[in-house]
Design goal:
This protein has helices at about 5-10, 50-65, 80, 100, and strands at about 10-15, 20-30, 30-40, 70, 90-95. The protein has about 110 residues and is of the alpha+beta class. The chain is globular and about 35 Å long.
């Protein structure tokens, strides 16, 4: 993912303590939006991070007037999307910035 891509599209990341655990981007396409680059790092799989990011993507898109959210899923992740239910978690999602890329928190 390039700086140009991040500048052109909203990109959000989930963190555990001080480490990036996963991220995704949204691309607006009129009333249909696409979740792109939806990734959870392997060491963070099974901790609810994908559910947190998915819920955040849905809420962000809905708040922006999205009528349909499209997700191109890796075949190995398709089951995860089918089971999405948010449970209590101490994880957080925030927007990706240049400060994030350089290791500084914003």
């Amino acid at each position: 993912m390039t700086r140009e891509y991040v500048a052109a599209h909203p990109v959000y990341l989930a963190e555990r303590e001080t480490e990036i655990a996963g991220f995704y981007a949204l691309r607006e396409m009129e009333s249909r939006w696409r979740a792109e680059h939806f990734w959870v790092l392997p060491v963070s799989m099974g901790l609810g991070i994908g559910r947190l990011l998915f819920r955040h993507a849905v809420e962000t898109a809905r708040a922006g007037g999205c009528a349909e959210l499209l997700i191109d899923s890796d075949p190995n992740a398709a089951g995860c999307y089918e089971r999405m239910v948010l449970v209590g978690t101490a994880l957080s999602v925030r927007r990706w910035t240049d400060a994030t890329a350089s290791g500084r928190n914003s």
